[in-house]
User: Fold this.
Amino acid sequence: MCTSFVYQTKGENLFLSRTMDFGFTLDAKPVALPRGYTFESDVDGERYSGKYALIGAGRNLGKYILADGVNEHGLACASLYLPSEAVYSKNTEAGKTNLAPHEFLLWALSFCKDVSELREVLQTIHLVDQKVDLLGITTPLHWIFYDKSGNVAVIEPTDPSFKLTLKENPVGVMTNTPSLEWHFKNLTNYIDITPEQKTSAKFGKFEAHPFSQGGGTLGLPGGYTPPERFVRAAYLKEHIQEANNEQEGVTNVWYVLKSVTIPKGAVIKSDGTPDLTQYTSSMCVSSLTYYFTPYGNQRITGCKLDDDFINHSQTPYEWDVLQTEDILYKER
Assistant:
């Protein structure tokens, strides 16, 4: 599952945001990784020492596995599922950087400043079919990238030759299977959806009037399938009133995220377990602030990748986030 989208305020604050929809409990929390953070690939044991500090949501499983993040240069990335379409090599390739799919995001944010630099090095990357020990499966992922220049790109590993390419994403939304191009074509079915109210219409001598406001949104899909979430996010990010600054931008982003957030019990997988939004997050690539909300607490927590951490820290830092509802009670 999962939904991701980019958003820009009037004040040039750029955000990459996402829902993390998953059935298995991930226990992810905001974490900052310093320059020089070293990790060992599960594929071939090769060790990599990152050039750039970064912040995102992840979990320490001997090394940090991140689902999203932004680095010190403002390159942000979110990884989402692409089941039935993602393909990976069964073997390593000499002369290439061999990575498991779940390692690619960490590598990209550790070594690339922007989308242009990622494009230059992408052909040196070889993704190998390697399981995540915690899940017992190889994660079928695709990735959306966003940088300070406003460049949006998607990587979908669907080529049988295992060649990776960057796709342009003019819509700025990504969900799950089918492929990105299919979702673009599907938007054609919804070009009549509008924020404006519908007028009356005559049927013979009878004139029908709208029941109330919102008539222009009749037909906007409301389910949780990837196509429905894609259309809903694309419509809302396009029409939500423009924000003036970062704080207003966070508010707007969270209203869009709420529209695709899955409450526990609304979607049940074939094994009988619920698929739910375990957290929502947004990365401001302009201020290097990571915003995070867990399932059990609707408060937005902001964590900043500040200059002191970037220039001086040598160890990872994790933020504790309250997991139960934080309600402000008022006395009369």
Notes: The chain has a mean pLDDT of 95. The domain at 3-179+261-318 is CATH 3.60.60.10 (Penicillin V Acylase; Chain A).
